[in-house]
Amino acid sequence: MSRAGLDRVRPDDGGDFVWCSSRLGKQWRLWNLWSRSRWRPATLAGQFLVLQVSVLLVVVVVASVVSVQQSDADFRATRGAAMRDAAERLANDRFVRSTVRTGTVAENRGALATITQVTRDSYQASGVYIAAPDGTVLVSSDFAGRGERLDLLGGPAQRLRAWTGDVDDFGTSSIAAQVPIINRRLELVGIAMVTEEYATWRERARSVLIDVVPVAGLGLGLGIAGSLLLSRLIRRRTRGLEPAAIAALADQREALLHSLREGVFSVAVDGTVTMLSDSARELVGIEGDVEGRRVDDLDLDPAVRGLLADDAEIRDHVVVVDDRLLVVNRTPVVEGGRRVASVTTLRDRTELLALQSELDARESITNTLRAQTHEFHNQLHTISGLVQLGDYDEVARLVGTIRRRRAEISDAVLAHVEDPAVAALLIAKTSLAAERGVDLRVSDASDLPRLDHESSTDLGTVLGNLVDNAVDASVSVGGTAVEVDLRLDDGAVHLSVSDTGPGVPAEVVGEIFRRGWSSKAPTVGGRGVGLALVQVVCERRGGSVEVRSGADSGAVFDVRLPGAWEDVEVDAL
């Protein structure tokens, strides 16, 4: 089948292509283009403008309707009173009463018609009627309705009561006043009614719009101008983003907050929490809805609360919360040259601390073994040379000296330290210090029992880092002694490490425990970790670490490590 003169088009719903005539295809494409442009989502500014204009138009319409109704109410009140006054004058006219009472209406119809016309002209009424007690029109101002019945609406006038209200004046809606005509015996002999028809809706709208249209037009113009300005402001404040893009950003924000492993806090300049990730809730132990609340009102660890409420920038600050080691970073958010908020991130480094502590212990053991290997190599070379010389007595004396020296080091440590891990660490550090020309001693007042495994590990981490720093400090100025004091008091281990180094200047006492601070030359792996690790371990156990100047020279580090080791059974090493 030939497809000449046919076009291939695709429906809006994404269905398969179809073949149709060129003219029909052109119309179809125009329809698709129009429908897409018609149903394309409007911009936020455009939607707001349409809403504002719609509201203003509704207000104008409602105001117009209310004005018309108010005009009707005013007309009913003022003209109703005038119609009642006219009807009462007509009913109380002596000639009218006499003529109606004597039944001589037919003989005096001309005179009565004149009276009704004068009344109509005087009060600008639409119709003036004199009727029989049953409502049959006897005389009217325009000679209309004679012989027909008036709209008496239940007959208030027939019950000898004057009445004012709306009636159907022979097909015309009117305001009317009906007054009974009575004789001297107070009997009803006739009814006087004066009416004025309501203006049409067109006339009422025209009278109202003369006043409403200028004011409404001015208000509508000002409203449209304000809406345009507000739309531009909204576009500027939303960075030109439309509702769909803003919704997508909000969804992405929620997804990021739920997926980040790092805790994220966003705090406004007034201390109000504006954003909080799930990880942050878990790390600091917060439950419930806290966004919109002040940081000071939250149940937070004092250290964390202080970091969140501060204004300064923070980089890799270490804080301990419960059993967690958190690394805190805070960055101020500046807009237009002023700080509007701050974003704080929390990283859990508890496992990293344990690994680093274990690596430090391994490194210490490796260094000790390296030093002992070096020392043993020298001693073996000496023994080998004596054997080759055949001086066996000197070999025996050398071996005895080495054994005694090892025994003296072990005995000096084991006499005051019963925990095997801590004792082994001190023995190894003593050998390592001796290789560098430093005498590492355990004070005579030291007395440390066996500890539980966790406490022994933490104490080893603290002791190893402090001894290494003390030896380095002593060597740097030619010092030759480092002393360690260990004792258990009130359920806590009290540790003091003193050196013969240069000491710690007063101006840097508050900085030495900060991660990254070091008086040594930088290395590839970085420095400033040891003392920061000591502080973290102490804080995690609820203890403390302080530094002071020694009695003669150098520095003294005092550590307090609480623990549950009082019930640990003490055995001989």
UniProtKB/TrEMBL annotation:
Keywords from the UniProt entry: Cell membrane, Kinase, Membrane, Phosphoprotein, Transferase, Transmembrane, Transmembrane helix, Two-component regulatory system
Top enzyme category: transferase
Domain Histidine kinase: 371-565
Residues annotated as transmembrane: 44-66, 208-230
One of the Pfam families matching this protein, by short name: HATPase_c
InterPro entries: HATPase_C_sf, HATPase_dom, His_kinase_dom, Sensor-like_sf, Sig_transdc_His_kin-like_C, Sig_transdc_His_kin_SpoOB, SPOB_a
Reaction equations catalysed: ATP + protein L-histidine = ADP + protein N-phospho-L-histidine
Chief localization: membrane
EC numbers for this chain: 2.7.13.3
Membrane topology: Multi-pass membrane protein
The keyword Repeat is assigned to this record: no
Location within or outside the cell: Cell membrane
Name listed for the protein in its UniProt record: histidine kinase
Organism: Nocardioides hwasunensis
Taxon lineage: Bacteria, Bacillati, Actinomycetota, Actinomycetes, Propionibacteriales
